[in-house]
## 1
Amino acid sequence: MKKTRLNTSHKNLGARMIEFFGWEMPVEYSGLMNEHMAVRQRGGLFDVSHMGEILISGKQALDFVQYLTPNDAARLTPGKAQYTALTTPQGTFIDDLLVYCLSLSEYLLVANAANSDKDYDWIVGHQEGFDVQVENKSGDYTQLALQGPRAMDILQPMVRINLDEMSSFGFNVANMEGEKVFISRTGYTGEDGVEIYTLSTQPEKIWDALLERGKSFGLLPVGLGARDTLRLEANLMLYGNDIDETTTVLEAGLGWLVKFKKGEFLGREVLLKQKKKESREKSWGLNWLKEG
């Protein structure tokens, strides 16, 4: 099994480890309910380094991201991210993911752990005709999620950037424990918080410092078990559960991330026909009610 760079730290904390899509990951430390409530009431720290990171760079990086995804990446400026999807020509999900605009010629796609290799192969398979480079950086990044109502109070003294100025889906570069990180105001729990990315080979320094700093706030390490109950409670989609290659973006209730006016993207025509059909059906239903 693959192991994150924090594997030993989890075992030292007494985590119960499980196999998760080829990774040895902590499912819980002090009990699922205890960890769930810590995130809702105080703060929780997750190791989510099993997630996939794919870098698209080059002169046509934006054009390629626009073609692969239904959201409008042209709205992004450096330091901004958006939720979107990798869509098939049928308008269904290869995956749902985040796109980070590192620069106007560099975009980092953060994919689900179960799909990272599949996503990379899909992206490379559609690369022809675009002047871009595609790199699978999944083994290089450590990703931590600090979530909960006290997350910003815990983190702010540890970085020089002003976290209050960071809007939702914004991110900024900082230094933590002598290591370069970028901090993103995103998460998968329904609570305020951040996700912290680093290429450091010693991320345990950051993990340990956050847990130490968070002690007085009631911060707990949290496993995949509570991550799932938290996202379920917040009504956040899970690939393989709620969405997959048989579900269109509109059928998933995520029509708000489809920007038809931006131009061509994989699945556009199918989704446009589906939207028009749904519109006609809703209109028919209204007329029927009036006449009835």
## 2
Amino acid sequence: MARCTAPVRGHRTASAAADCPACGNRYSRYSGYGSYSSPSYSSSGSGSGGRSSAGGSGSVRPRWSRAGSSLVYTAAEVRALTPFRTSVEIGASLPDRRDVFLCHAWEDRSGAAKELHDLLESHSVSVWFSEKDVALGTPLLREIDKGLAKSRVGIVLVTPALLRRLAAEGIADKELSALLARDLLVPIVHDTTYEALRDVSPLLGSRTGLSTAEEPMASVAAKLAELVTL
């Protein structure tokens, strides 16, 4: 009998859940986001040499992937990201919109958050980032509210510092609550685990997202850029 990998690896990233030998098929069956008139992705493998995408472990190409893109997605990642892509497409006609709102801990502003911001901007993604978008002397919470209202998708950089902030119910917690209410939030787990996140925020921990434990920050940023680019 196949053994579940959850006690060791967890099931909180899309690929980890789909790759579990015990739960992968069940995840594939129940974690969809409704029916679509056309597939959201196509398999990039063919013949006996390619990996099957049925369980989420194969390499697939989402419908928003650009021609010639070298990014590799699992079927589970595509299922998790498809609703966000739909939101981006629906909001494309709205004026004065940022592609992404970046929620992060104050301690990460010049470290991991700045790295992710710079990587996204290198892909021509417009990012609302408090370090550059909140002027000195302006009300922080009011500026955050405006930033949230003008962003198509929210991403939260989950780090040990953010977990501490959420436990203390600071400003990061208020940003997160607003993003969760909109149901447009992609967690990016960095230098921590989904298990640790679930202990602090079960609701956010239930969301599938991307993890730098599985791929470098540059690849995570490239996938986010491809997700929001029209």
